[in-house]
Design brief:
The chain is of the alpha+beta class and 96 residues long. The protein has a single domain, classed as Folate-binding superfamily (Folate-binding fold, 2-Layer Sandwich), CATH 3.30.2270.10. Helix content is 14%, strand content 33%. The strands form two sheets. Strands 3-4-5-6 form a four-stranded antiparallel β-sheet, with no helix packed on it. It has a two-stranded antiparallel sheet with strand order 1-2. A hairpin with a 5-residue loop joins strand 5 and strand 6. The radius of gyration is 15 Å and the shape is globular.
Amino acid sequence: MLLITCPWCGPRAQIEFTYGGDAGKARPADPDALSDAEWHEHLYLRDNRKGPHDELWQHSGGCRSWFKARRDTRNHDILATGPVDADFDSTGSDET
């Protein structure tokens, strides 16, 4: 069973959480200017990186808060969690 640490509620089973997507992918500044092909690329095409990856999660079965998690895609270990604006690279304080 995968345990995810909610920054506010503590460790909980994965079943309490909903995956929200890539935390590093920014929404386009002018969405109306994008073509259908560009929207398709933004919404559906992702890098399939191996190793640590920042993701958005919601504690949907608990406090309902959104947060950022750094997960290692090779083994699914959760390396860190913190608020959505957490900067795991510079602080190191969000380690779980």
